[in-house]
């Protein structure tokens, strides 16, 4: 019974490996990869992963900064519109120029 279960699991594992090979179009390499090649591949992969992570974190930070800057700018603009514009209008309405003088606004 135990032997039959182990054979079934082995067959399933081989089937899954075959499916992976077919799905990812892996070439059949019967030779063993050298330790130096594995080291280079792992170093290259690690560098790609690290670069991608740094790029994604930089984008996240820049998006957050942009969001903060936009909200601050919008707040300042709203304050300016709500305070400065009515004050200008009030100042314009109260300025009376003597006859014959030129008012520059």
Major sheet attributes: none
Structural class: mainly alpha
Number of helices: 2
Helix content: over 70%
Q: What would you say this structure looks like, in words?
A:
It is a single chain. This protein is mainly alpha-helical and 105 residues long. The chain has a domain at 50-80. 78% of the residues lie in helices and 0% in strands. The protein has 2 helices and no strands. The chain has helices at 2-23, 35-94. The protein is rod-shaped. The termini are far apart. The relative contact order is 0.03. The model has no long low-confidence stretch (mean pLDDT 74).
Key phrases:
mainly alpha
Short structural summary:
This protein has 105 residues and is mainly α. The protein is 78% helix and 0% strand.
Write the layout of secondary structure elements.
Elements: H1 2-23, H2 35-94
């Amino acid at each position: 019974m135990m032997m039959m279960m182990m054979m079934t699991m082995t067959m399933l594992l081989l089937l899954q490996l075959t499916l992976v090979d077919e799905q990812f179009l892996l070439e059949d390499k019967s030779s063993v990869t050298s330790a130096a090649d594995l080291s280079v591949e792992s170093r290259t992969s690690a560098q790609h992963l690290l670069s991608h992570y740094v790029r994604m974190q930089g984008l996240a930070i820049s998006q957050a900064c942009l969001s903060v800057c936009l909200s601050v700018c919008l707040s300042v603009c709203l304050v300016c519109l709500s305070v400065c514009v009515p004050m200008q209008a009030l100042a314009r309405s109260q300025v009376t120029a003597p006859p014959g003088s030129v008012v520059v606004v």
